[in-house]
């Protein structure tokens, strides 16, 4: 064991650990000599074990001091587990229907014990690749985002409470710096980690590195990401961080959580749905077979923003006379002014959402850590064709985001580019 009390798990060690950890042992049943353990981590950073005992199953997640998908050559603080557990607990309190319960957290071991999100839940990204529809997805995700973002913002909180929460999450600086690098910097310069479908996209990747307007816009977003502590974000809300069935939606993996701009979370989700949309032609069994499915993805994008807008502003109305410090009732109690303020806030948030969504799309095509939506398209020429459409759309969205005023205009622009 290291001097800081940390030990990377092995199966044997995990069983010994569970035997002396009552809150976890209680979930599994008493006979801990007959446990089934399976490591299922298919994410980029950590190790995830499903442990099944006589009376139930749990998930154990451990952070090691490096990035799993790259290896020990890219060290990364294992303190990320503390921030993941903290966000799970905080977001779980605000939205228990869509966040798995944390049973146990061990800061020294960087280990979280949590609810096993049981089959038939699967990772949303895999469902989207398989062409499966989730009729409640937009409703559930808009609920999760509206509640977690509203209740951790100055629309609800005092600046005293907000500042102390911000101070805690400033500690997650290494994970934020990783995002700064791989989302806002590397795709726009030569970097050893960048990758794209070569040779098909060589010129496209170069064009990103040569595009001054794009660089101007991404600098603005990077500064907002680093400087704006608007709400407690999930920080990595892509379709690989969501587990679904047609009736249930569970948000996992918030280790990148910090106080940042709300549009970064909403954009991550919408941007990844757009990536899923553009990958569909690569999964189509025959020409046009995914036409209706693509329409469902577009409807989900539309519903997500519109429902989010409705739910978020409803929370704002409900708490407008509360202790939220952003718009004091003594100044903003005039209904006309309230409407103006809300309109401006939501318009700015919409443009942030589109900008961050676009930046998240670009990094998945010409940066590090690509997405399975495209990676699973075996024929490289076909994959590149799908990726190029997504990349071109993302570039337009990033540069022109302020010209979009309603989500249906974004959906129409996607359809136009795909025609
Ligand atoms: P990483 O931090 O490395 O990205 P994730 O949190 O995304 O790890 O988890 C990796 C995989 O482990 C997920 O894709 C999912 O299949 C599985 N997983 C993670 N948490 C749970 C859970 N609570 N219940 C069931 N499966 C889970
Ligand atoms: C090396 S970048 C790894 C990526 O995986 C995580 O899910 C984050 O998106 C991060 O950017
Ligand atoms: Mg993950």
Automatic annotation (TrEMBL):
The residue ranges of the Aminoglycoside phosphotransferase domain are 37-270
Q: Which Gene3D superfamilies match?
A: 3.90.1200.10, Phosphorylase Kinase, domain 1
Q: Per its record, what are the GO molecular function terms?
A: ATP binding; S-methyl-5-thioribose kinase activity
This entry's Enzyme Commission designation comes to: 2.7.1.100
**Alphabetized UniProt keyword annotations:** ATP-binding, Kinase, Nucleotide-binding, Transferase
Subunit comment:
Homodimer.
**What is the protein name stated in its UniProt record?**
S-methyl-5-thioribose kinase
Q: What is the lineage of its organism?
A: Eukaryota, Viridiplantae, Streptophyta, Embryophyta, Tracheophyta
Q: Which gene encodes it?
A: MTK1
């Amino acid at each position: 064991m290291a001097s800081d009390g940390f030990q990377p798990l092995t199966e044997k060690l995990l069983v010994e650990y569970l035997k002396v950890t009552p809150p976890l042992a209680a979930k599994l049943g008493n006979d801990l000599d007959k446990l089934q353990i399976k490591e299922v981590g298919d994410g980029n950073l950590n190790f995830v074990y499903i442990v099944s005992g006589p009376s139930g199953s749990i998930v154990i997640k451990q952070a090691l001091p490096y990035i799993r998908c790259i290896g020990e050559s890219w060290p990364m603080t294992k303190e990320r587990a503390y921030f993941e557990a903290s966000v799970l607990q905080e977001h779980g309190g605000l939205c228990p229907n869509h966040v798995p319960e944390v049973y146990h957290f061990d800061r020294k071991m960087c280990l979280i014990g949590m609810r096993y999100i049981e089959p038939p839940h699967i990772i949303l990204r895999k469902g989207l690749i398989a062409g499966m529809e989730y009729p409640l997805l937009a409703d559930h995700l808009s609920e999760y985002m509206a509640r977690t973002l509203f209740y951790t913002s100055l629309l609800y909180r005092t600046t005293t409470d907000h500042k102390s929460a911000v101070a805690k999450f400033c500690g997650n600086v290494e994970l934020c710096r990783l995002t700064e690098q791989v989302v806002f910097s590397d795709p726009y310069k030569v970097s050893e980690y960048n990758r794209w479908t070569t040779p098909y996209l060589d010129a496209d990747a170069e064009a990103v590195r040569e595009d001054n307007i794009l660089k101007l816009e991404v600098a603005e977003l990077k500064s907002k990401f680093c400087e704006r502590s608007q709400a407690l974000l999930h920080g990595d809300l892509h379709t690989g961080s969501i587990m679904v069935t047609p009736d249930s939606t569970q948000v996992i993996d918030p280790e990148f959580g910090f106080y940042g701009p709300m549009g970064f979370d909403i954009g991550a989700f919408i941007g990844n749905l757009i990536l899923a949309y553009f990958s569909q032609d690569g999964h189509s069994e025959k020409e046009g077979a995914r036409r209706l499915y693509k329409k469902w993805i577009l409807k989900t994008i539309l519903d997500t923003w519109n429902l989010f807008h409705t739910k978020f502003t409803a929370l704002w109305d409900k708490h407008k006379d509360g202790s939220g410090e952003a718009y004091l009732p003594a100044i903003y109690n005039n209904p006309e002014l309230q409407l103006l303020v809300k309109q401006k806030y939501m318009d700015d948030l919409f443009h942030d959402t589109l900008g961050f969504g676009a930046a998240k799309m670009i990094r998945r095509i010409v940066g590090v850590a690509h997405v399975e939506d495209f990676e699973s398209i075996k024929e490289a020429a076909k994959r590149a064709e799908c990726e190029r459409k997504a990349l071109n759309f993302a570039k337009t969205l990033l540069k022109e985001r302020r010209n979009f005023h309603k989500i249906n205009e974004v959906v129409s622009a996607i359809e136009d580019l795909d025609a």
